[in-house]
Design a protein that fits this description.
Layout lengths: L4 E6 L5 H8 L4 E7 L3 H11 L13 H5 L5 E4 L21 H9 L9 E7 L6 H12 L2 E8 L12 E8 L2 H10 L2 H9 L2 E2 L33 H5 L8 E2 L24 E2 L22 E2 L2 H7 L39 H9 L4 H12 L1
Parallel strand pairs: 1-2, 1-3, 3-4, 5-7, 8-9
Antiparallel strand pairs: 4-6, 5-6, 9-10
Helix pairs in contact: 1-11, 4-5
């Protein structure tokens, strides 16, 4: 049996990429994770049993990296440099410098990673950061695949459009045979990058999306701690909240502001009362009869396909490399939060995280 693929997990957060690796059932191990968020590191250690390094990524040297003998880099760098909320400063944003540093480290390594996986927000595909990374990977003879995909396309009732990059370094044998056969058009397509927007990339499947009721907890409907405060509803005149019912099969993207008074575009609200009442967007008081509540952290964890307790279904039987119909992951460890992590901190951590199932399927079917 070959040795497990040795992975480094950069910008690890609560471990979404690590969980995805487990869900994908790839023979791989995370030999070290890196993040400076102390609360996220606390959650990571609570679940995986070892704490990520909080050493600033910009200070890592080739020697620091090479000691791990890593075959794969997993990266989920900060998204703010590529969002309107973060002023879209791109490569000039200080929060982008850690990724830039890692790109600059790649050619300095005696043995660069064979595999690289990166996740970020939409707009990253148009960034200078992405251009710099793709140029470096092209110069180092990596084959690159890129896509913009949402969990909806994988059979999960949550819209969370994200950019993903998968890169695999060609061997010297591949270099001599493949590169000689590639046309100029094919070579330029690697640099310019075709962005796949269908899943699978061939578009030969279309997965049915289940109703939201399969992801939410009935008991939470009556739990007042998740109710949207009346004052936050009343003060938003004519604002059209994204209101969903358990019978719906779509929710909007949950952001790090979810659960707070920032209700605009932070995520869907669940309707818990079904009286024959017509609400009027120009009269926010009419919305109070709907019993609007936030998704709970556990429900968001389910929508983001983290393995969570008391949500275990029969696992999927499938070919190792063909796309699978979504089934709630059952692998260990489950995602749990220490009691010391507050409700708002949980929302923020989950809003900054990723969809584990989407990443797992891309790892299974495209990267490895």
């Amino acid at each position: 049996m070959s040795d497990p693929i040795r992975c480094l997990e950069f910008f690890s957060g609560i471990g979404g990429l690590h969980y995805a690796l487990n869900i994908a059932e790839i023979p791989a191990t995370v030999v070290c994770a890196f993040d400076v968020n102390m609360i996220a590191n606390q959650v990571y250690e609570y679940n995986f049993g070892h704490a990520p390094s909080n050493k600033t990524i910009e200070r890592l040297t080739p020697k620091d990296i090479e000691k791990f003998k890593a075959d794969c880099w997993l990266l989920s760098p900060p998204c703010q440099p590529y969002t309107q909320g973060g002023n879209m400063k791109d490569i000039d944003d200080p929060r982008a410098q850690a990724l830039v540093h890692l790109i600059d480290l790649l050619p300095k390594l005696d043995k660069p990673p064979t595999y690289l996986f990166l996740e970020n927000v939409k707009n990253f595909e148009e960034s200078q950061s992405r251009a710099k990374l793709v140029q470096m990977l092209d110069e180092m003879n990596y084959q690159v695949k890129e896509c913009l995909l949402s969990p909806i396309q994988f059979g999960i009732p949550n819209h969370r459009l994200r950019y993903y990059m998968m890169a695999r370094r060609r061997s010297s044998i591949d270099s001599s045979s493949v590169q000689q056969q590639e046309t100029e058009q094919e070579e330029s397509s690697v640099i310019q990058g075709e962005i796949h927007t269908k899943w699978p990339f061939t578009g030969e499947y279309q997965f049915e999306v289940p109703e939201l009721c399969q992801f939410i907890e009935n008991a939470a409907n009556e739990d007042l701690q998740y109710r949207v405060p009346e004052k936050d509803i009343i003060k938003r005149h004519k604002f059209r909240f994204d209101i969903v019912r358990p019978s719906d099969n779509r929710t909007s993207c949950v952001t790090k502001a979810y659960g707070s008074h920032h209700l605009q575009t932070s995520g869907s609200l669940i309707q818990t009362q079904y009286l024959d009442v017509k609400h009027d967007w120009s009269d926010p008081k009419s919305l109070l009869e709907l019993g609007l509540r936030f998704l709970s952290p556990k429900e968001i964890s389910r929508l983001h396909a983290f393995p969570v307790p008391e949500y275990q279904l029969q696992s999927n039987d499938s070919c190792l490399t063909k796309p699978r119909l979504f089934n709630p992951p059952h692998c260990l460890p489950h995602l749990n939060f220490p009691d010391s992590v507050t409700l708002m901190q949980r929302y923020r951590l989950l809003g900054n995280s990723l969809n584990c199932w989407v990443v797992a399927e891309l790892l299974r079917c495209e990267l490895f």
